[in-house]
Automatic annotation (TrEMBL):
Pfam families: Thioredoxin, Thioredoxin_6. Its main location: endoplasmic reticulum. InterPro entries: PDI_TMX3, Thioredoxin-like_sf, Thioredoxin_CS, Thioredoxin_domain. Residues 3-125 form the Thioredoxin domain. The lineage of its organism: Eukaryota, Metazoa, Ecdysozoa, Arthropoda, Crustacea. This is Thioredoxin domain-containing protein. The keyword Lipoprotein does not apply. Probable disulfide isomerase, which participates in the folding of proteins containing disulfide bonds. May act as a dithiol oxidase. Acts as a regulator of endoplasmic reticulum-mitochondria contact sites via its ability to regulate redox signals. Gene3D superfamilies: Glutaredoxin (3.40.30.10). Coiled coil: none annotated. Residues 1-17 form the signal peptide. One of its GO terms (cellular component) is endoplasmic reticulum membrane. It is found in: Endoplasmic reticulum membrane.
Length: 427
């Protein structure tokens, strides 16, 4: 009996502790008054929204991961507290904002715990985090997958440019500043001051800035170009940033199943491209970003067609034009992939697509037909009612306008039409 009571008590305290620490706080109108008191990560939701419900558990895990940080995590029902929603300009659900002081940042990455936690961690500190000791630098090297660092005295044009870029990109990237000494071993060729990126165990130092072009623009463009790991998984969440790299994106298009695995053929093909990337890094790194598209929809939309899987697709991130190998990509060997990339870089392949008006139109039509197809597969009855009914009425109206005068004369045609419409509805 005693043991039972103890264990009940223990579990009670345990729940209490974990609740009070890591709770997602349900916010009300009063949020507008208290939001200035600390840093907030808030999900704005509506009870009827399916994506919000799907995000709920992810958001709870996020709150737990942020338990030992100054960030408080909350959610707000926008249908009940409309004043807060309109004050903060919430337009869709779910919207996740990070609020500190008067600053508001909108979360735009994939809705995973990892992305949400990184987003909050980056924003909870200053745009550039100062590192004073070599030990802290080692910690950063271990903890961060990818970060930018300014090395040297914190003054002058390069520092200002670095700080400005950090302010713009704080919600996406991590920025540090440090004195030279600790990094001697890492950045051998760099002269202080310098800007570098650390990724995948190595580092790249920003080349000296030429006389043309402003320091601010050059630093920001370099950071945008270097912000991804060497072989990146591309999703709707990071695509907008990839299009800002200014590089040629060389991608393998595959189709992941629900648990994130690939068929043997697709996996082999993906590894081939990665091998090509590692072997030819020196030659391509500056101009090419390699990666893989986990779901083919993005690729199909860029190429305005249903791509065979797996395949290689290259995209000029500045012009949105794309390139496909002449041979069917699944039978390309590594040497042929290298040739393909070289041909793009020396302009001997003709790009297709792009952002022109007609391409845009084609893309819209293509995407609409794809969504219609998906809707059809998901729920054929609803789709045919939604589209069949208005079409049926439209054809009736057209019929009566254009063929009104011969209506009486051709009774059987009318029967035929009603018959057709009936079938359409039934489908
Ligand atoms: C870069 O931007 C910062 C902040 O906007 C500004 O103070 C500085 O003068 C700019 N530097 C140059 C060289 O334009
Ligand atoms: C990519 O597009 C930009 C902008 O249209 C163009 O200047 C550049 O030459 C293109 N690069 C390649 C390799 O086609």
């Amino acid at each position: 009996m005693k043991i039972l009571i103890v264990s009940v008590l223990a579990s009670f305290f345990f729940c209490e502790a974990s609740n009070s620490f890591n709770r997602v706080i349900e916010l009300t109108d009063r949020f507008l008054e208290v939001k200035g008191d600390s840093q907030w990560l808030v999900m704005f939701y509506a009870p009827w929204c399916g994506h919000c419900r799907k995000m709920e558990p992810v958001f709870m895990q996020t709150a737990q991961s942020l338990a030992n940080t100054p960030v408080r995590v909350g959610k707000l029902d926008c249908t009940r507290f409309t004043s807060v929603a309109s004050e903060l300009g919430i337009k869709g659900f779910p919207t996740v904002l990070f609020l500190k002081g008067d600053e508001v940042f909108t979360f735009s990455r994939d809705r995973t715990r990892e992305e949400l936690v990184d987003f909050a961690r980056r924003l909870s500190g200053p745009p550039v985090k100062f590192i004073d000791s070599c030990t802290d630098m080692q910690v950063a090297l271990q903890d961060e997958k990818l970060f930018f660092v300014y090395v040297g005295e914190r003054k002058g044009d390069l520092w200002l440019a670095f700080e400005t870029s950090a302010k713009h990109l704080q919600d996406h990237l991590m920025f540090f500043a440090i004195e030279m000494d600790c990094l001697k071993w890492h950045l051998k060729e760099a002269k202080s001051p310098a800007v570098a990126v650390f990724k995948e165990g190595g580092n790249i130092v920003m080349p000296p800035i030429g006389l043309d072009g402003g320091v601010n623009e050059t630093v920001q463009q370099w950071i945008l170009a270097e912000q991804f790991e060497d072989f990146v998984r591309i999703t709707y969440g990071n695509l907008p940033l990839l299009l800002k790299t200014g590089k040629i994106l060389v991608l393998v298009v595959v189709d992941e199943d629900k648990v994130g695995t690939l068929t043997h053929e697709m996996d082999t093909f993906k590894r081939d491209l990665e091998a090509v990337m590692r072997k030819n890094q020196e030659e391509f790194r500056e101009k090419v970003q390699f990666g893989w598209l986990a779901s083919p929809e993005i690729g199909n939309s860029i190429a305005i067609t249903t791509l065979p899987l797996p395949c290689i697709l290259a995209v000029n991130s500045s012009s949105y034009q794309y390139f496909l190998p002449e041979k069917e990509s699944s039978i390309l060997d590594q040497e042929e992939i290298v040739e393909f990339v070289r041909a793009i870089l020396d302009f001997s392949l003709v790009p297709q697509g792009g952002r022109s008006y007609s391409t845009h139109f084609q893309r819209t039509v293509f995407e609409a037909s794809v969504s219609l197809g998906q809707m059809w597969r998901g729920n054929p009855v609803l789709t045919s009612v939604l589209f069949g009914l208005p079409l049926g009425f439209l054809s009736l109206i057209c019929y009566s306008i254009f063929c009104g005068d011969i209506m009486e004369a051709r009774d059987d045609d009318e029967d035929q039409l009603i018959d057709d419409e009936f079938h359409e509805k039934k489908e």
